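Handout for the seminar on molecular recognition.
Each group receives one record of this type.
Step one: identify the two inputs.
Step two: read the structure output and locate the region that could contact MRU.
Step three: write two sentences on what you found, then compare them with the reference statements printed after the record.
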Amino acid sequence: MMTAQVRTIEFRDGQLWIVDQTLLPSTYHQICIDSVETLWEAIRSLRVRGAPAIGVAAAFGAWLSVRQAEGEDGHDLWPYLLAAHDQLRTSRPTAVNLFWALERVEKRLQSSRELSATDFRARALDLALEMLREDERVCEQIGEIGATLLRDGMTILTHCNAGALATVRFGTALAPIYVASARGLRFNVIADETRPLLQGSRLTAWELTRAGIPTTIICDGAAAAVMRTRRVDLVIVGADRVAANGDVANKIGTYGLALAARAHGIPMYVAAPVSTIDMATGHGNDIVIEERSPDEIRVPFGLHVGAPEAEVYNPAFDVTPASLITALITEHGLVQPLNEQTLRQHVLEPSSV
Ligand code: MRU
């Protein structure tokens, strides 16, 4: 139903392949992930990034850890799996999909430990492939639901990359745009460049223009002025973690956008799968925010632009209070208004919302 979005994570010829996003937009190159160490490094260095994509990639960690390990049965292989999961948990702290995926794999494989080693390995791979297919399905559903909010001719502003490259395929925030475009609606998308790693200008603008969707890149600092002096009908972003009270952690700069959108009366939507909702974290202030290397700001892409003596503070994410979000779009529907009660109901009894 949608045009051929890039496949960010692929299992082909018995191997796991990811698009190396650090090379985009100049080079499209897939790398083979053949060990837990390579997977850890790929997540840590943002070769694979975006909360859902991180979760799916991590789901292959169990299979990578046991596929060459010696043992008679699942019990013998289990310690390898646990060690791999412990290592992967240290890769990035904010996107809850990483922890969700590892926990799900552990729970599901626990009861398979009686299997022979060969069958246990096959079960680990099947489970990862099931999660890969599920992510595609869920993103398509988010796209369908989100598309009901879009009208022909809209100008839509987005931040970071919550598109195909942040998931297995269609994306979360960009999925509604892909669905509605496939039905003939036309949009202008404004992509914040997203300092310091430029996921907006390098990745979002790349995948949207590749899909034939007109896209304008602006620097992050221009967003509020663009809202005031030009037309922005709607803001839509993804999420790395939604706390139980509806507060949303997403790429640094999202909070500022939400404040500016509120000041200008522009609706602010967040699109994310239910797997990004973390009911165990009560409040946005409890979400661990990743701080990354000062060199991402001092020496971005190898260019010395920051005074070497200056201190650098480089949080990768911020938290937007639920009260600034018009609605959360998940595969189950819209959560509007977004608060602890509506979110709890959405997660526990999706059909009643
Ligand atoms: O540091 P990144 O590039 O992994 O940050 C990604 C984001 O902030 C995305 O908006 C979020 O993960 C949602 S992806 C569907």
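Reference statements: The longest helix spans residues 117-147. DSSP finds twelve helices and 14 strands in the chain.
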